[in-house]
């Protein structure tokens, strides 16, 4: 499934679900000043038990209280999605890392974290045109 090369972990596309099963929630945090009337946002970190594979992203809470990935183009990880002997294209890497994050129960971890902090999660962030900024892909994301 995985092969470690320096600090990157190489995973075939077929092994995404297997890797997702090995990742464990490490930490969820609110961004500084993130519990304001306009926005609740934070970060989540998931890693394997030996921390050889790590995934990190920012999330925001929508009006209906759902945690969503703030910018799917900005998920950070040392996991590389490629078949043996090849290098993944940007598209394959983007799709692989997003499939991996969506296979994790991260939204419940965020809800549990907010509940422990007693931070209301519903109705906290409405993305208006003034809240949006272009990501590297040109898609508007929460500012």
Give Rg in angstroms.
Answer: 16 Å
Q: Based on helices, strands and strand pairing, what is the structural class?
A: alpha+beta
Q: Element order, helices and strands?
A: EEHEEEEEEHHEE
The averaged pLDDT comes out at: 79
Count of strand segments: 10
Helix and strand arrangement:
Blueprint: E1 2-5, E2 8-11, H1 16-22, E3 24-30, E4 41-47, E5 54-61, E6 67-69, E7 76-77, E8 79-81, H2 90-102, H3 106-117, E9 132-134, E10 140-142
Which terms would index this structure?
5-stranded antiparallel beta sheet; alpha+beta; Nuclear Transport Factor 2, Chain: A; 143 residues; 22% helix; disordered C terminus; disordered N terminus
Summarize the structure.
By secondary structure, the chain is an alpha+beta fold.
Q: What would you note in describing this structure?
A:
- By secondary structure, this protein is α+β, with helices and mostly antiparallel strands.
- It has one domain: Nuclear Transport Factor 2, Chain: A.
- The protein contains 3 helices and 10 strands, in the order ββαββββββααββ.
- The strands form 3 sheets. Strands 3, 4, 5, 6 and 7 form a 5-stranded antiparallel sheet that branches.
- β4 (41-47) and β5 form a beta hairpin.
- α1 (16-22) crosses α2 (90-102).
- The longest helix has 13 residues, at 90-102.
- It is elongated.
- It starts with a strand and ends with a strand.
- Mean pLDDT is 79; it is low at 1-6 and 122-143.
